[in-house]
Amino acid sequence: MALGLPSVRPDRAVTVRELLSTGRQTMSFEFFPAKNAEQERTLWAALRRIESVGPDFVSMTYGAGGSTRANTASEAERVAAETTLTPLGHLTAVNHSVSELRQIIGRYADAGVRNVLAVRGDPPGNPTGPWVPRADGLTYAAELVRLVKESGDFCVGVAAFPEKHPRSTEWDSEIRHFVEKCRAGADFAITQMFFEVEFYLRLRDRLEKAGCETPIIPAVMPIVRATQIEKMVTLSGGSFPAALAERIHAVADDKAAVRALGIEHCTRMSEQLLAEGVPGLHFITLNTSTATLEVYRNLVPAA
């Protein structure tokens, strides 16, 4: 696969499926919706910086437990209307009736947002708590994929977990559930963040053995503060390399040194993933795009 800047940006309504079909490794960035005016300014400053390098698409997440759902749709709509960026709108089944889900899907369609990431999501208030579906809602991500696919001409992505979903007890059920999402119509997947290349490669090998060829885009993020390590591990349900954590904690009082280590690790990991032939990279920005742009420019010096 070739890596580089997109040769053209002819149609911001292009689908991720179409982008992946070209064989060029895609570059994309993830943001979350703002909750107040200050966050809105920060978000849009980051989006404009990312827009300047012409990424293949940008995603807008839901907040924990399905919060910020209205803001997510609004931001994705605004990205489609006011920028040259291709938006990927997130959609979760958490705390939604089927009717509400159809309304959000309709908003995406009306705004020309053709790409949707469909995930079941975690229980509101307690991500590790028991999952209790609404009687008028959905229970599984595969059901949400079918709903979006039946609602229009959408390209649908799903989540993948290089270290297993936190609720999965073993790999057989993890792979079975992922394959079910693909059979429901998923066009691609984006992983949960992870910090060791081997986790992605093992997941890919397991899915290949299961006969699943759905493209899986790895999500990466540079750690730029020592305090992020524990939080990111909690959010991802995964692990963090002990040796890297030791190096970061050793310079925890030096912000520039921590940032440099995080960018160095993320760059090296990204280079290894690209060399392994991944379909693309998805950078988690936390709405502060400067560190992810440094990694991106390390990979694409012409950017």
Give structural notes:
This protein has 303 residues and is of the alpha/beta class. It has helices at residues 16-21, 37-51, 69-82, 98-111, 141-150, 171-183, 197-209, 228-236, 242-250, 255-275, 290-299, and strands at 2-3, 24-31, 57-60, 87-92, 115-119, 155-160, 188-191, 216-217, 219-220, 280-284. Strands 1, 2, 3, 4, 5, 6, 7, 8, 9 and 10 form a ten-stranded parallel sheet that branches. The two termini are 18 Å apart.
Task: List the topology elements.
Elements: E1 2-3, H1 16-21, E2 24-31, H2 37-51, E3 57-60, H3 69-82, E4 87-92, H4 98-111, E5 115-119, H5 141-150, E6 155-160, H6 171-183, E7 188-191, H7 197-209, E8 216-217, E9 219-220, H8 228-236, H9 242-250, H10 255-275, E10 280-284, H11 290-299
Parallel strand pairs: 1-2, 2-3, 2-10, 3-4, 4-5, 5-6, 6-7, 7-8, 9-10
Helix pairs in contact: 3-4, 5-6, 9-10, 10-11
Characteristics:
303 residues; alpha/beta; ten-stranded parallel sheet; 11 helices
The whole-number mean of residue pLDDT values reads 89
The tally of beta strands, per DSSP, is 10
Distance between the termini: 18 Å
> Largest sheet, if any?
10 strands, parallel
Point out poorly predicted stretches: 5-11
What is the count of DSSP helices, taking H or I runs of 4+ residues? 11
* Rg computed from alpha carbons, rounded to a whole number of angstroms: 18 Å
* Structural class by helix and strand composition: alpha/beta
Proportion of helical residues: 40-55%
